[in-house]
């Protein structure tokens, strides 16, 4: 009776449901529309096999899970943020722990009951639906219910906990989402800082780390599976917030209602958190817009962000813009020193990060390249990369030798913060598996000319070519090969005979592994592209096969000879007799400080972008030479190239590009007066 009267006070429960029950009703309606109704009304000719119900309209479901529980947490505890209601509730013959318990139980009911009802109705729809658009099993339904319950409880509890430290409802909601986004924002911008000032920092894409925030999780929920570890982490936090909420509520002053920050201890945390966030944002912004080689802009951005951040934090805490006092400047300097140390310590030379190269006897295996992903059964998953590591001594020696020279050289850390790899020729991403079980990663963009010998030693090794050109896939079974000419997409051949598939696969593998370093760096376009088709391991009928693409370069003698022997070569080859004429248009690229892609541009000739007149020829010798030499695209600041159009008798016209130095004497002769 005491528990029911105090902890489950019927009067407060009824009042809560009368006043705020609309949140639970709204949550139920939105969930019903976003899941069971969506599944029941969706139509597909071929049903889609899914492993998670979040693959069916999951973005909408998670959107409701991160908004309505927050609304419940704000409205149920609105009384502690307003002066008069706070006095009224705290004058009731109930202890604070009783008030908190009854409000928490109300919140749990309003967010969990809609989820459980939706789960039950979804199960009923799954049983009675004759022609479902999605195929899944019963465990998938219960997993959805569990995941939504954990996500919703986490959002509700973090809102309540933050509300104990904040005295304004609007600021409470903003702070909740700021806290959830803060890890991603800090990680992303801090990564830009480290990338700019720390040689070798292995900066990866934001997308794969955005899952640190449940707010950004909704962008990937439909194709990135929910992991048990993710649910366990959110569950732990949701549980830990419960006793923390009781502790904070017991110590919260009634008169702190309407104050921005209710606890003195929280104020410096709030102040530094906001200041440091703006420090990072300011530094990142001015680094990105800085002229090439202007390091001072980034430092100015850090200082400006720190000043603005501190002033904004003070105005929020004091609820006025009149914040000047004798203590303002010393506090600003103190916070600035702390922020500066946080930024400086990770990039300081004395920590040894940039100069660290592991010893060969402490390395178990090495992989070059970042993580790889595979899309299967509607979800995007990290591939098992164990087969990409090598423990070949020659290969490991070559990698460590290259790494050592990079560290010893006076290499600029970053001269283009927007496109870091565009001003250097080579990208090197090293993953060391060490004897102690850890993985050491380093990432560099380096000029090829300065590291030519080391790169040659590395890239001519068999283990490098096996991974870089994915020849390990050619060791697996294949159903067929589709080969498309690089010159004309209309030129295609198909190999499905099992014996021919095996022969072609083996010859292609040998040619790839026999490539020299110069052949790997060849600027000339490939002769053709081969697409290998394999049986699908996916349950999704929309993904019936797995496909892998390989280049067929002009230097692949075995493959080209085999194609000729099997009378497939001529089917891929465009003959000079099929070309009516060739048109040349000179293009000057001159953009110092801004790299541009030099690629074949149909619009340059057809769209009249060329300022000078075009030159056309029907000379078969010139046309034959053009068909044999087509340059691949490349980046440049200043160059002279020729955009070329080959007009064919039938089918699509061919567009290509040559540098001025690629022209033959015959070509130069007809272009001399252009």
Summarize the structure.
The protein has 674 residues and is of the alpha+beta class.
Keyword list:
alpha+beta, 24 helices, 4-stranded antiparallel sheet, 674 residues
The dominant shape is: globular
Report the end-to-end length measured between terminal Cα atoms: 100 Å
Helix content percent band: 40-55%
Largest sheet: 4 strands, antiparallel
Structural class: alpha+beta
Per DSSP, the total helix count is 24
Task: Calculate the mean pLDDT score and round it.
Answer: 83
Q: Measured on Cα atoms, how large is the radius of gyration?
A: 32 Å
Total number of strands: 17
Low-confidence stretches: 414-422
User: What share of the residues does DSSP label as strand, in percent?
Assistant: 5-15%
Strand order, sheet with most strands: 9-8-10-11
């Amino acid at each position: 009776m005491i528990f029911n009267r105090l902890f489950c006070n019927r009067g407060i429960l009824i009042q809560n449901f009368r006043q705020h029950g609309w949140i639970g009703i709204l949550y139920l309606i939105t969930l019903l529309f976003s899941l069971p109704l969506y599944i029941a009304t969706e139509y597909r000719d071929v049903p889609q096999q899914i492993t998670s119900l979040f693959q069916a309209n999951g973005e909408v479901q998670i959107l409701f899970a991160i908004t309505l529980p927050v609304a419940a947490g704000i409205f149920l505890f609105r009384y502690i943020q307003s002066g008069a209601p706070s006095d009224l509730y705290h004058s009731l013959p109930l202890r604070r722990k009783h008030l908190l318990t009854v409000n928490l139980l109300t919140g749990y009911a309003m967010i969990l009951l809609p989820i459980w009802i939706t789960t039950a109705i979804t199960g009923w729809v799954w049983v009675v639906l004759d022609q479902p658009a999605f195929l899944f099993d019963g465990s998938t339904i219960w997993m959805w219910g569990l995941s939504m319950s954990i996500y919703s409880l986490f959002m509700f509890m973090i809102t309540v906990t933050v509300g104990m430290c904040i005295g304004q409802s609007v600021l409470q909601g903003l702070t909740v989402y700021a806290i959830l986004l803060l890890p991603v924002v800090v990680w992303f911008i801090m990564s830009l800082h480290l990338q700019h000032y720390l040689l070798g920092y292995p900066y990866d894409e934001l997308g794969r780390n955005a899952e640190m925030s449940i707010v950004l999780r909704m962008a990937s929920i439909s194709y990135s599976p929910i992991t048990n570890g993710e649910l366990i982490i959110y569950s732990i936090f949701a549980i830990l917030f419960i006793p923390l909420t009781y502790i904070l509520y017991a110590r919260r002053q009634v008169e702190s209602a309407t104050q921005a920050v209710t606890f003195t201890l929280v104020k410096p945390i709030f102040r530094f958190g906001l200041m440091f966030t703006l420090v990072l944002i300011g530094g990142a912004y001015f680094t990105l817009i800085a002229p090439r080689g202007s390091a001072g802009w980034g430092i100015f951005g850090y200082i400006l962000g720190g000043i603005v951040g501190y002033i904004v934090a003070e105005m929020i805490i004091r609820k006025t813009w009149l914040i000047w006092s004798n203590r303002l400047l010393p506090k600003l300097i103190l916070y600035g020193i702390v922020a500066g140390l946080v930024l400086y310590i990770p990039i300081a030379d004395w920590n040894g990060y940039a100069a660290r190269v592991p010893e060969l006897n402490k390395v178990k295996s090495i992989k070059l390249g970042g993580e790889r992903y595979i899309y299967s059964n509607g979800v995007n998953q990290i591939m098992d990369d164990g087969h990409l590591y090598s423990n070949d001594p020659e290969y490991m020696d070559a990698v460590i030798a290259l790494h050592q020279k990079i560290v010893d050289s006076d290499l600029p850390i970053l001269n283009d913060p927007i496109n870091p790899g565009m001003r250097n020729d080579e990208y090197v991403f090293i993953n060391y598996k060490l004897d102690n079980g850890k993985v050491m990663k380093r990432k560099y963009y380096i000029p090829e000319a300065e590291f030519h010998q080391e790169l040659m030693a590395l890239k001519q090794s068999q283990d490098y070519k096996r991974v870089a050109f994915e020849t390990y896939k050619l060791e697996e079974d294949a159903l067929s090969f589709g080969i498309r000419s690089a010159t004309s997409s209309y030129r295609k051949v198909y190999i499905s005979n099992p014996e021919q598939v095996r022969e072609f696969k083996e010859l292609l593998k040998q040619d790839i592994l026999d490539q020299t370093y110069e052949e790997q760096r060849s600027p000339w376009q490939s002769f053709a592209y081969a697409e290998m088709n394999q049986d699908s391991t996916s349950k999704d009928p929309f993904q019936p096969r797995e496909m892998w693409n390989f280049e067929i370069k002009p230097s692949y003698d075995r493959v080209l000879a085999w194609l000729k022997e099997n009378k497939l070569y001529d089917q891929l080859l465009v003959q000079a007799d099929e070309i009516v004429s060739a048109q040349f248009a000179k293009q000057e690229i001159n953009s110092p400080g801004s790299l541009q892609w030099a690629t074949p541009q149909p619009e340059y000739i057809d769209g009249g972008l060329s300022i000078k007149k075009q030159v056309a020829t029907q000379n078969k010798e010139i046309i034959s030479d053009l068909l044999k030499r087509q340059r691949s695209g490349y980046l440049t600041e200043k160059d002279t190239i020729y955009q070329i159009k080959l007009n064919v008798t039938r089918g699509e016209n061919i567009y290509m590009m040559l540098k001025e130095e690629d022209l033959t004497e015959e070509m130069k002769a007809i272009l001399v007066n252009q």
